[in-house]
């Protein structure tokens, strides 16, 4: 099942007491592990990576809770646990509803844990988590900010996410830097305190490329500050995709609407600028740009290639397409 299905079960109070959590988003795997195991007066045994011990874990679920509550076993690892051992923990949960077992598997080889093939005869919930889409990521960071009493709007959160190439874990960690501020957090505050692409705004780099200005020094500076070529390409792809969304929306509706296009309110000058940029190009140009960018990203992920050369070649070719 997917995250949305699990959310429905949580709302309806129809969740199981054994879970296998896996997928691309380590952040969401960790987030839901904490959420599902947040049970008062429970006896919790938590294993991370190489700490796992089958006999001790089995004993924990088989014994009565020391606190008279529930026994919870959490195993978070990027190593596969033998099927027989997983089944043993699940059976303890099937027989005793006071037990709770969560296997948070963080490696990429997660397709093994398909519910229909692997745990068909059990009530175990196998949940795959994808990387949060932008709107969901903004909402997650906003929720963390609210809990920490950090005053930050959706536009600034979006800027923070863009700096970290959409990485929710890094972005939520950055929120703690703003706890000491007794004022609304702006994009300028973020650029002053957050490292990453903040050193040179990626949007400004892309505008130089779009306007066919020299961009080589900007790219070099970004790379020197620790970013890699693939992250730059994916950031540009995201920006171009956003412009294309503006282009389509305006052509259909006549005027832009940031909430419907981006999923959050953005300052008028930002909306106006992106709307203006988006209309400079025809849909066929956007198609060519996406084809080039995705092809370049795939080439960069091959072993033994010169990613820097591919990046510069790609940016030059973008300017030739425009």
Task: Record the SSE blueprint.
Layout: H1 3-12, E1 18-23, H2 26-36, E2 43-48, H3 54-62, E3 71-77, H4 83-95, E4 99-105, H5 115-118, E5 125-129, H6 134-147, H7 154-163, H8 168-175, H9 187-193, H10 202-210, H11 216-224, H12 229-253, H13 258-262, H14 268-278, H15 283-300, H16 307-321
Parallel strand pairs: 1-4, 1-5, 2-3, 3-4
Percentage of β-strand residues? 5-15%
Q: Can you give the helix content as a percent range?
A: 55-70%
Q: Note the quaternary state here.
A: single chain
Count the helices. How many? 16
Terminal-residue CA separation:
42 Å
What is the CATH topology descriptor of the largest domain?
Zinc Finger, Delta Prime, domain 3
Q: Which secondary-structure class do the elements indicate? A: alpha/beta
Count of discrete domains: 2
């Amino acid at each position: 099942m997917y995250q949305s299905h699990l959310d429905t079960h949580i709302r309806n109070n129809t969740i199981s007491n054994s879970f296998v959590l896996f997928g691309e988003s380590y952040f969401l795997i960790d987030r839901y592990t904490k959420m599902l195991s947040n049970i008062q007066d429970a006896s919790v045994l938590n294993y991370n990576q190489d700490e796992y011990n089958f006999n001790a874990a089995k004993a924990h679920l088989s014994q009565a809770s020391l606190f008279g509550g529930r026994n919870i076993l959490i195993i978070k690892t990027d190593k596969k646990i033998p099927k027989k051992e997983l089944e043993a923990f699940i059976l303890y949960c099937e027989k005793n509803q006071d037990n709770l077992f969560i296997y948070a598997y963080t490696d990429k080889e997660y397709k093994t844990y398909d519910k229909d093939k692997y745990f068909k005869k059990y009530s175990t919930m196998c949940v795959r988590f994808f990387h949060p889409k932008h709107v969901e990521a903004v909402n997650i960071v906003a929720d963390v900010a609210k809990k920490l009493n950090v005053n930050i709007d959706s536009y600034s959160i979006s800027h923070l996410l863009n700096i970290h190439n959409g990485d929710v874990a890094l972005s939520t960690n950055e929120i703690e830097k703003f706890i000491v501020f007794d004022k609304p957090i702006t994009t300028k505050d973020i650029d002053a305190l957050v490292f990453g692409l903040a050193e040179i705004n990626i949007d400004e780099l892309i505008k130089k490329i779009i306007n066919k200005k020299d961009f080589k020094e900007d790219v070099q500076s970004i790379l020197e500050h620790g970013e890699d070529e693939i992250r730059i390409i994916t950031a540009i792809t995201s920006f171009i995709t956003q412009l294309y969304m503006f282009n389509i929306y305006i052509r259909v509706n006549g005027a832009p609407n940031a909430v419907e296009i981006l999923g959050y309110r953005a300052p008028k000058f930002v909306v106006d600028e992106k709307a203006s940029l988006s209309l400079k190009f025809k849909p066929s140009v956007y198609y060519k740009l996406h084809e080039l960018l995705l092809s370049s990203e795939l080439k960069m992920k091959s072993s033994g290639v010169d990613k820097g050369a591919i990046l510069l070649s790609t940016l030059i070719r973008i300017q030739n397409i425009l």
